[in-house]
Design a protein that fits this description.
The complex is a heterodimer of chains A (about 190) and B (about 260).
Chain A: E1 14-20, E2 28-34, H1 38-49, E3 57-62, E4 67-70, H2 71-82, E5 94-101, E6 112-119, H3 122-132, E7 140-145, E8 150-151, H4 157-166, H5 178-185
Antiparallel strand pairs in A: 1-2, 1-3, 3-8, 4-7, 5-6, 5-7
Chain B: H1 7-32, H2 41-69, H3 73-78, H4 89-92, H5 98-119, H6 125-153, H7 157-170, H8 174-178, H9 184-189, H10 196-213, H11 233-248
The chains are: A alpha+beta (about 190), B mainly alpha (about 260).
Chain lengths: ~190, ~260
């Protein structure tokens, strides 16, 4: 894949980052990082996206492995979008992770993980996902081959995520510099 | 809550905590010098995180010291002259290139991981608890610095040359980092410190193992001599920078 515009290619490919805030909650797309490989991408994801606030697990996937389709694109494609013409119909079935955005509510996250399907090719996986996860109606879908997703190591979860829990995120107002500065100015 | 220590034990613990805090503070500052200059945006943030962790550990050790001698951690950090610091020369050296910075951080993390694991068995509860807290972060630091050690050693001819040069430059300073303080024996007898000789050996074994795994050897070179009273000139210039704001307005209420 080529580097994003404005980024030198030496930064490595872009990886989508999925963060899970607590056990039982879905992994959510929170942004991306540039990194040389999957292991590096996970470390960068932890530093950039999970230092504050708390998380319990991270996934990364190369951005070029993500099939991203909006409801508008699906509607515009009409019958064509549901037809095998879009699909890779050859090869062995494989597992795909399914992510979905289902709310216009303002959020720093994009799609949520909703489950998994097995299909031949990402478009076939998308069609299977639409059937398997009909409610609530999706505004956008991400389909990612399971084998391209790397997860933070469970056995090191404490080292990756506990320190963030133990520290308070301080707004700049917490440092109390405003009042002393004002007093000084007033003499 | 009392953790009454004999006078000589308390004095020795103050010396040990000061050495540990100064290593963390000075290394944290060196790492922070990369902020805005790291080769990748993501690494810029990641190294700033490590710098904050190390400075946070310095705060832990200085607060423990404060409980023993009522010293003020901020005053120790920002109003002490170079001659009164007890940092090791390894952490004082200028930041160098990316390979130098990440290798130094790796060597330091290897030592800190061994030291903290041993300290978590200290008979002095506040020290054992603080060590346990800091140790969690070192696991992730070693993940990060270990990844770069591997990538640089196995990367391009240039990256391999740079990590090799960094290792040559740093190796003479490694023994001082792990060398026990003269007063550590008092703490070892009191059960406050583990055997610091053993911590040093474990550190060396860990480092040699990690280097061997990427095809590197720790150079067998004479140790840069002298105790923690002797510093590099680089510490002086670092402190001018680090302490400038605090010293510009010593009466500031908040900054």
């Amino acid at each position: 894949m080529s580097a994003a515009p404005g980024r030198p290619s030496g930064d490595g490919p872009r990886w989508e980052v999925f963060k899970q805030d607590a056990a039982g909650k879905p992994h959510q797309a929170v942004g991306s990082v540039h990194a040389a490989d999957a292991e590096h991408a996970l470390l960068m994801a932890r530093s950039v996206h999970a230092r504050r606030p708390a998380a319990v697990s991270l996934w990364v996937a190369p951005a070029d492995a993500v099939l991203s389709v909006t409801a508008e694109q699906l509607a515009a494609a009409g019958d064509e979008g549901a037809a095998p013409a879009h699909g890779d119909t050859e090869g062995a079935p494989q597992r795909y992770l399914v992510f979905r955005k289902s709310s216009h509510r303002r959020a720093i996250t994009f799609v949520d993980h909703v489950g998994e399907v097995t299909a031949v090719g990402p478009w076939a996986a998308l069609r299977a996902a639409i059937v398997a996860f009909p409610e609530p109606p999706a505004l956008a879908w991400w389909i990612v081959p399971s084998e391209r997703v790397s997860a933070s190591p469970d056995y090191e979860a404490a080292a990756w995520f506990e320190p963030a829990r133990a520290k308070t995120y301080k707004q700049q107002s917490a440092y109390g510099t405003t009042a002393p500065t004002r007093r000084r100015r007033q003499g | 809550m009392t953790h009454a220590l004999a006078t000589d034990v308390a004095a020795a613990l103050v010396a040990r905590l000061t050495a540990m805090a100064d290593d963390e503070l000075i290394l944290g500052h060196r790492d922070a010098e990369w902020t805005g200059h790291a080769p990748l945006l993501e690494e810029d943030i990641a190294l700033a995180n490590i710098a904050q962790d190390e400075i946070g550990h310095a705060v832990l050790w200085l607060e423990l010291r404060s409980q023993l001698d009522d010293s003020d951690p901020d005053a120790l950090a920002f109003f002490r002259d170079a001659g009164d610091f007890r940092s090791s020369r390894l952490v004082e050296l200028p930041r160098g290139d990316w390979a130098f910075t990440l290798l130094r951080q790796f060597l330091f993390d290897a030592h800190e991981a061994e030291l903290l694991a041993a300290l978590s068995g200290s008979s002095y509860r506040p020290l054992a608890e603080a060590a346990g807290k800091a140790a969690t972060e070192e696991v992730f630091h070693l993940r990060h610095t270990g990844l770069w050690l591997e990538r640089l050693a196995h990367g391009t001819d240039e990256s391999a040359a740079r990590i090799g040069a960094a290792l040559e430059r740093l190796a003479p300073y490694l023994p001082q980092l792990t060398e026990p303080l003269p007063s550590d024996s008092v703490l070892e007898r009191a059960g406050v410190l583990p055997s610091m000789e053993a911590v040093g050996r474990a550190t060396r074994t860990r480092i040699e193992g990690a280097l061997a795994a990427v095809g590197l050897d720790l150079p067998q070179v004479p140790a840069n001599p002298g105790g923690r009273e002797r510093h590099t000139e680089d510490l002086v210039t670092l402190l001018i920078d680090m302490q400038a704001v605090a010293r510009a307005d010593p009466e500031a209420e908040a900054w």
